[in-house]
Every structure is written in structure tokens, then in C-alpha cells.
What does this fold into?
Amino acid sequence: MQITEHVHALRIPFQVHLPSGVTLERFVYTFLILGTRICLVDSGVATSETVIFETLEKAGRKPREIDLLVLTHSHPDHIGAARAIREQTGCLVAAHGAEKGWIEDVDLQSRERPVPGFRTLVGGSVPVGRSLADGDEIDLGDGHSLKVLHAPGHSAGSICLLYEKERALFSADAVPVAGEIPIYEDIVESVRTLKRLRALPGVDHLLAAWDRPRQGREVDEAIAGGQQTLQRIHSIVTGLAGKGAPGNPMELCRKALAAMGLPPALANPLIARSFLSSLKVKDGRNLFKA
It folds into this structure.
């Protein structure tokens, strides 16, 4: 799907098999920027290189023209095909320094952040040739560039990318989607990130990993919706926990999911950790107060 003159969006479906026996039908977006240089934003899950390379061929370009792969963070659905893409193209891989360890050692990530189906989602480790930080500029050639925005919350080293010439914001997983599984490390950092993204001027295209491309007025609506989603989760979790200790985190997780209208069978340690971050907030239940 062509979004702007140079940006193409690829929707890649995949499945996650949970220990509970539930199979989740998921998808993730990757993005190709087809300029003098070809930049790929995120790699999708393992084997996604097939779809990516076929898309390039249809556009009259060659996979070997990819010279840069920017990974917005280290989670499996974003780095899964990175190794295969680098092996076949020789491209430079770039990511935030805080995500480097888990990208370069996926066994370490699997141990420290176990995800159902990790081994089927990730094709292997890949070296990060450039560490990115907030405010960095990524040269795309011919006067085009991406500005790196550090966007913690979903993960410590998550980044968004602002493509000012085409008024596009690659938001990765920074903007929560109502009705989707809530996964983040720090709800307060997520709130700060959303405030920053919503304040950016001149964004006509919001390009997220877990949501369809949004444009025009939908951009602000989507980010505002993400804020409302976080506030609703926070209110539910703090309401369930009350003034005492949270008790069993998994039980709290199941109850919170049910209150959100999601199947309690989805409960897992990653979602439980997301919810528990609400209990660290000391300044009341309104996350977005001035």
C-alpha cells in the first residue's frame, strides 16, 4: 500500500500460540521508504523478508538496494526477519542503544522476556551497526531524512521516526489501540510519549505497527484514543487493586482483562507487568493531569 510518494506500508499477518491453548491472529506493519536509498522500518516476524522482497520487485526495485534497516525496538514482531534481510542485502541495522542487547542476542531476550512462540517469530540475532538516540538524523539521500524521537513506555529504547518532508510519523507500538492487548513497560513513560507525539506539528500520516495507516484528522484522533485507552486501563487496574497490595499479579491481570472486555485467558506475565506499572503511580488516578 503506497502511503506517500516514497513510503509503502506492508501488513504482515502471523499467529501466536499461547500456553492456554488460545491462538492469536496478529499482524504487524513494516514500511519501505523508496528513495535513492531504500530504508526499511522494522522487519516483521521471521520469513517476512519474502513479502518485503516481493513488494520491492513489484515496485521495480531490488532487495539488494536496501541499505538501511531501522528497528524501532527489539520485540519479536519487529526484529524477526532482521537477520535474513541483513544476510541477503548487507544492509546496516540501526536501533536505539537501549534495545541493542536484545537484538544482538535473541537468546538473552528469550530468557529475560519470554514470549509464546518466540523461536518461530525470530529468525536470529543481528548486529546493530548504528546506535540511535533522541534527535539523531538519518540521511535518506536527496535531502530527505528521518528524525529519531526516543519514545519510551512500550519499551525503554522504543523510538518513533519523523519523516518531515512527507509529513509522516512512524510510531511503532507507542500508540495503544483500544481493544488490543495492552503491552508496555511503564505507563507513565507511555503517557509522556503520547503527549510528545500529539504535540508534533505537521503530521499528516500516522504509521503504526499494530494499526492501519491513519491520515488527516485521524492522526490526532488515534493518539487521543491511545491516551484514553491508557487512562481506562489505569483506572481499572487501580480500582481493582484498591489501597492494598495487588496480591497475585496474574489474578489481577485476569480481572483487569475481563473488565476491559478481553478474554481472561490472554493473561500472561507481560500483560501483568504492564498493569502493575499503574500501581507505581503516586499522584492519583488521572494520568494526563497537568
